[in-house]
Amino acid sequence: MTKTWTVYLSGEIHSDWREQIAAGTKDASLPVQFTSPVTHHASSDDCGVAILGPEDAPFWTDHKGAMVNAIRTRTLIGAADIVVVRFGDKYRQWNAAFDAGFAAALGKPLIVLHPDEFTHALKEVDAAALAVARDPAQIVALLTYVIDGRLATA
Q1: What local confidence, expressed as pLDDT, does residue 92 receive?
Q2: Burial letters 87-107, b for 16+ CB under 10 A, else e
Q3: Structure confidence by residue, pLDDT tens digits, 126-149
Q4: Quick check: is 64 in a domain?
Q5: Domain CATH number, residue 143
Q6: Is pTM beyond 0.85 here?
Q7: How many other C-beta atoms can be found within 10 angstroms of the C-beta atom of residue 4?
Q8: What is the residue range of 35's domain?
């Protein structure tokens, strides 16, 4: 029986990097299932007040949403075989940095994905990772090697 690997894809939600990785692993016939945080920005921001009721101050709106989102995030990172965290060039992704730290604290194999220009800013995150990739094709090549033992070029 072939193991199905669970890969948690954390990080920026403004590009199609998740879809590129999913398509690449499908093309490579890898036994992978992907999980992720809620990637619909408004839903993620408003989930706490939409479900549990309004707040008077933006701080408490954000706080409530973060706690509700953490139920999903902590559960799925905890269940993951591998965690991939993407840092993109749009917005500050504090949640992605937190997810990387959480995964590292749990001892999860961590792969970080970001452009070269973020190397200095993410040096501590990179140091906790087992691999630092620059594009989704490298993630697919890493997963192909780790899961199937096939060395494919990115």
Answers
A1: 73
A2: bbeeeebebbbebbebbbeee
A3: 999 999 999 999 999 999 999 999
A4: no
A5: 3.40.50.2300
A6: yes
A7: 11
A8: 5-40+79-148
